[in-house]
Amino acid sequence: ERLNLQLGRQFARLGIRALPMDFLRLDEEDLSDFPRMYWGLGARVLRVAKRIARTPSWYGVHLTNFSCGA
Length: 70
Fold this sequence. Notes:
By secondary structure, the chain is mostly helical. The chain has a domain at 22-59. The chain has two helices and no strands. It has helices spanning 7-13, 40-54. The relative contact order is 0.13. The model has no long low-confidence stretch (mean pLDDT 86).
């Protein structure tokens, strides 16, 4: 519970449908305009961002867990 803060439930309570990026087919998203992107996760995030940019009814929320040195 503490790790994810029940964000799915909180979005649902607000009437927001959340779709994890893992649920999207992204193989057709072209990243040739980012030729130096070598990191796999970074490439996935960019593909998702491109898909969201093309879909007017979608809005992106990027959640990450970062705790360096904690």
